[in-house]
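Blinded run. Sample ID left blank on purpose so nobody reads anything into the name before looking at the predicted structure. Input follows.
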Amino acid sequence: MKYKPMLAPNDQVELVDVKYPVLGSYKLDGIRCIFYKGEILSRSLKPIVNKQLRAKMQPLADYSREKNLILDGEFYNHNIPFGLISSCVMTQDVTDKKAIKSWAEKCEERDIEITREEAMNGIKFYCFDAIKGEEVEERFVDRCGYIRALTFNFPKSAVEVKQNILETAEEVESWFKTALDIGYEGLILKDPNGRYKCGRGTVKEALIYKVKPYRTFDGVIKEVIQATEVINSRLDMLKRLDADGVLDLHSNDLSENEVKVIYEGRYGALKTTNELGRSVTSKKKGDRILIEKACDFMVDYKGNNVKVVIAMTDAEKEEIWKNKEQYIGKVLEYKFMEVGMKKGGLPRHPTSIRIRYDKE
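Blinded prediction complete.
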């Protein structure tokens, strides 16, 4: 078995279409962590770097190896926002002088008074799934037994993510409201008899769903942002090299491999893969070229510029870029997540819904 962490579909599901009953849990806004073969790994199966947290959680890693378990969950502290959790988990050594200064700045930015030590002490491993060996077909309701055993043995560092039986859409909606009221990000719904899927589930499979809150907002479009793509083809590379005066596009007779060697020697590799074997798209400007397509709208949000992802087809994005001047000044309806926003901060994950021609 090639293990990958189970992910919920990105698509939202209509609650009336869910096959009930389901097991529901609060959706945490923490850092994904997997204990696998004695290792403490991130969602992309890279080692967690923070040495203080690794030392604190090493007994859980040893337990996972001894019991032949894969433990899936998040590092989480309900008393601090995601940005501070991320800082704790992603900082290699929290006692470093730069890390101490950075922590003070982050707390001031969020108007929070908490020491790094208090935050670190409050971070625990919230476990929401587990696999025995390679038994991915075992029912979720049975896999929960491994979670209870873990938290029984390690009550100070591990927390069982509680599952509630929900039998109707109305119950989900009621519990969803409760989740938001007490500061959670939403809900995760799972089929009690479902298997553990290595990778992202689909709505059709009905193994797992996420229910997240979005708020809609109207903003005036100030700018249309042009899309880019990674340089992959020989022609794309030649165009870039030619534009920088490295080669003569009209006269060169190099092989594709020779062009690639020259290009990567000048700009670096174009694509890599992560520990899951997934392609990682380069974000370096030198590795990308502009294309005739729009990717984002820049809108005004309470006096600040916010990039809103254009959630449309490629053809529609091409049309927007071609006629970009016509969109400036239009009113855009978009959605974003309020949960996890900094006080007075900018929207999280803003995504377009539609142009409000009725509000011109």
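Unblinding after everyone has recorded impressions. The radius of gyration is 24 Å.
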